[in-house]
Predict the structure of RNA polymerase sigma factor.
Amino acid sequence: MSYSRAEEAILKFQKGDKEALEVIYNVYRAPLYQFIFRYTNNEQLSIDLVQDTFEKLQRNFQQFDQEKGKFKTYLYQIAYNAMMTRLRRQNVFRTLLPILADRHPHHENSDEKMTVQSAIQSLPEDLRAIVLLTYYHDLTQKEISMILHIPVGTVKSKLHRALRKLREELEVNED
């Protein structure tokens, strides 16, 4: 299923075609699940939050304005807000450890993968979210700023800080 097909479905959904939501769901379900799971490391919570995201999308779709940004950004913003609300309610921030999938599965260096995973897991949650959204979901800094409700400049500085911390952590682990 392609993003262009999803764009057609978005237009149909805006015009009241409720069946178009199924196409949107099929295109975005897996990427949203991956984002949430990498952040929470909780399969059931991730499934629930993807479902919650699409329920909120269906209820609040009239709030989406194509003039303000991309649909993908809007959807990730709903997912991120749902996740943070649920996590605050459950008060489990301290136990979150995202497991990051290797973007290049043909590289099988598990020690290196675990070292990178560990370094990313050690980041504070705000920096971790920006790293995940940037490098694993290919979102722009502007899109991330909209999802996290922070200025673009803050995204840039936090990304820089996250990369610096990762570099320091990985250099220490090399010794």
